[in-house]
Amino acid sequence: MRDKGEYLFTSESVSEGHPDKVADRISDTVLDTFLTADPYARVACETLVTTNRIVLAGETRGPDTITPELLSHAARMAVHDIGYDQEGFSWKHAKVECHLHAQSSDIAQGVDAAGNKDEGAGDQGIMFGYACTETPSLMPAPLYYAHLILRRISELRRNHDLSVAGLLPDAKSQVTLRYIDGKPVGATSVVVSTQHEDRLSQDHVRELVLPIIETSLPEGWLPAEHEIYINPTGKFVIGGPDGDCGLTGRKIIVDTYGGASPHGGGAFSGKDPTKVDRSAAYACRYLAKNVVAAGLADRVTLQISYAIGVSHPLSVYVDLHGNPYDVSEGKLEATLRELVNLTPRGIREHLHLNRPIYAVTSAYGHFGRDPDEEKGTFTWERTDLVPALKAAFNR
């Protein structure tokens, strides 16, 4: 995003009941099932969901105790937790097909450690991290508020709160903010589309959703009433996988920075942490967030690249976007490589990624979430590098 002038910027979010997010949740549930049995299991699980059908496909390497029957049950429980027991998509009645098979030996030999060879990256690729001072979580504001609106609707629905009675799991949001000289100053439009029971009229849905939008945005940021679009197409009763096919990995911009930062192209869900698409993207966010938290920048974009089978990153690149604090970007790149071992093994060990912590990441973004020390989730959101970064740059 630009640092000068006035402009509008938009990001969207989708709920855990969106068909693509249902697929992401199931893929990450499969991953967690394997990691519970074996922290070093290998998983690349893709999921397709459509009308009363769930299809699992991909490659795995793990204990024989992880059977197709166990994975089918885990998939159903994920759907149950999201809240689907509808005629067209039900955790009870959906047919589950499991087509997972053994990981390619050609891929395995490039990734596995052997002799003097360290564990290599699971694929080539580029990964990006981003952080900024626009919100307390150091995330871009349009995505932050788009996520927040849907998370609040979901929390109320899950708690059976009467204030959202009749709203169903599938939902989308979109927030457009006005920026002046790189800082957000207010919303110019908000869009929320949410699945609902047939008994609710469009006016009733608006009455339920509007207060949530109002309390989610900062005071004075609410756009004009005619720029708040709630179920703008009207009726939204048929939703979720019954209304639209869902696939793993189709919401990568929602998962990351809402378009405020480049994206390397790789999806996250269903991939174990030897896949740098996931683990290195988490490391990039971790480094970027710590740079901003240390006061070295108001906004930072960070890129790392890898080659399949090679352990060390091929490049580390930092952009401080104007660099108002006069920090040497070259020195910062070198310092970050010194502070964190950016090999696949180093990332996994530093961020404790070989644990069943991934189902919770599958909706409302992988970044900008609070780390939970007890559960071990979102370790890449910690800011424990701040003291070392401040010391390195005399701050």
Can you describe this structure?
The chain is α+β, with helices and mostly antiparallel strands. It has 11 helices and 11 strands. A hairpin with an 8-residue loop joins strand 10 and strand 11. Helix 1 packs across helix 2, helix 4 crosses helix 5 and helix 8 crosses helix 10. The longest helix is centred in the N-terminal third of the chain and has 19 residues. It is flat. The mean pLDDT is 95.
Give a quick set of tags describing it.
single chain, 395 residues, alpha+beta, 4-stranded mixed sheet, 11 helices, 11 strands, 32% helix, 23% strand
Could you describe the largest sheet, including whether it forms a barrel?
4 strands, mixed
Mean pLDDT figure: 95
Alpha carbon gyration radius: 21 Å
List the uncertain runs.
none
Strand content: 15-25%
Helix count equals 11
SSE order, one letter for each helix or strand: EHEEHEHEHEEHEHEHHEEHHH
What structural category do the secondary elements indicate? alpha+beta
Assign an overall shape. flat
Total DSSP E strands: 11
Helix content: 25-40%
Distance between the termini: 27 Å
Order of strands across the widest beta sheet?
1-6-7-8
Record the SSE blueprint:
Elements: E1 6-14, H1 19-37, E2 42-50, E3 53-61, H2 68-82, E4 95-102, H3 105-111, E5 125-132, H4 141-158, E6 167-180, E7 183-196, H5 202-216, E8 228-230, H6 240-243, E9 246-247, H7 252-255, H8 276-293, E10 299-306, E11 315-319, H9 329-339, H10 344-351, H11 386-392
Parallel strand pairs: 3-4, 7-8
Antiparallel strand pairs: 1-6, 2-3, 2-9, 5-10, 6-7, 10-11
